[in-house]
């Protein structure tokens, strides 16, 4: 604590974030599960995200995700994450982000950290958790396909393999041959088993795999034929806008949070508009964890997570505590200046 009980303010760069998370995949998946359970039990505050859009840059957006997490590691905060798809053509990542952590007692922010790594981490941990829980009533997938091969795809593969998954076949499909080759090279370096195939089309990839990860930058549905899913795969629909309403309505659907997911023209939101209701949503992943929701076999199963800010807070708080424990916090002295009410 600094003067007058105000917390010190620290800046945590991406190098420290990555270091704090390295090798902790199983712990982070457990943390994400704990946070989902807390959210399900009412132990969080997770209001709607706010989208900042630009008339002169229609493909770009910046999203604010405010949230509060209770419990022993209580923290409030905000993730501020941009998505500029044109960055990819320039050779830099689409997304960039910062996470602000606020002290629940005083409201003062006590940390600002690089958060594209945190965002990718919580997304990948959520995907690994969903893959485990949603396949328990089915044959365990042996062929995984990645449609979209950027940072999120890499993190999802890392979290799956770190939590005990292995695959006989790994499929890749991307609109960019260069990006597909880059991901194939990553897979080779990872040492993970499985024959790697670069597919010429999404249809070919989908039909060849029983676990499919969508991690694209698609703004509107581009996968439109329910027949491609007639082998009943499990689909981790992380990019949210790949699947047509017809595919969503033909599948068993699980989301992370119904109110969050069915908005902003996500595929489930479009399906709601087409069908006039939400009956196509079986339930939530927290509901699955609590045993209230049991996805049936025999139909395609789609998990569409909008992404909850409380997950970012949980992972961010974990990073802060690890860096602090190591004595490596980069405290900004004097960040809060006017701390005396009358000077």
How would you describe this protein?
This protein is α/β, with parallel strands linked by helices and 343 residues long. It has eleven helices and 16 strands. The strands form two sheets. Strands 1, 2, 3, 4, 5, 6, 7 and 16 form an eight-stranded mixed beta sheet that branches. Strands 10-9-8-11-12-15-13-14 form an eight-stranded parallel beta sheet, sandwiched between helices. β6 and β7 form a beta hairpin. α1 crosses α11. The longest helix is centred in the middle third of the chain and has 19 residues. The protein is globular. The two termini are 20 Å apart. The mean pLDDT is 96.
Keywords:
343 residues, alpha/beta, 8-stranded mixed β-sheet, 8-stranded parallel β-sheet, globular, SbnB, ODC_N, ODC_Mu_crystall
Outline of the structure:
By secondary structure, this protein is of the alpha/beta class.
Average pLDDT reading: 96
Range of strand content: 15-25%
Report the strand count.
Answer: 16
Largest sheet, strands/sense/barrel = 8 strands, mixed
Radius of gyration over all CA atoms, rounded = 20 Å
Order of helices and strands: EHHEEEEEEHEHEHEHEEHEHHEHEHE
Distance between the termini: 20 Å
How many helices in DSSP terms?
11
Show unreliable segments.
none
Which range best describes the helical content: under 10%, 10-25%, 25-40%, 40-55%, 55-70% or over 70%? 25-40%
Structural class: alpha/beta
Bulk shape = globular
Protein name: 2,3-diaminopropionate biosynthesis protein SbnB
Pfam family, one: OCD_Mu_crystall
Organism: Amycolatopsis pigmentata
Write the layout of secondary structure elements.
Blueprint: E1 10-12, H1 14-21, H2 25-40, E2 44-45, E3 50-53, E4 61-69, E5 75-83, E6 95-102, E7 109-114, H3 116-134, E8 143-147, H4 151-162, E9 169-173, H5 177-190, E10 195-198, H6 202-208, E11 211-214, E12 234-237, H7 245-250, E13 252-255, H8 258-261, H9 267-275, E14 281-284, H10 285-289, E15 301-304, H11 309-325, E16 330-331
Parallel strand pairs: 1-7, 8-9, 8-11, 9-10, 11-12, 12-15, 13-14, 13-15
Antiparallel strand pairs: 1-16, 2-4, 3-4, 4-5, 5-6, 6-7
Helix pairs in contact: 1-3, 1-11, 2-3, 2-11, 3-4, 3-11
Protein name: 2,3-diaminopropionate biosynthesis protein SbnB
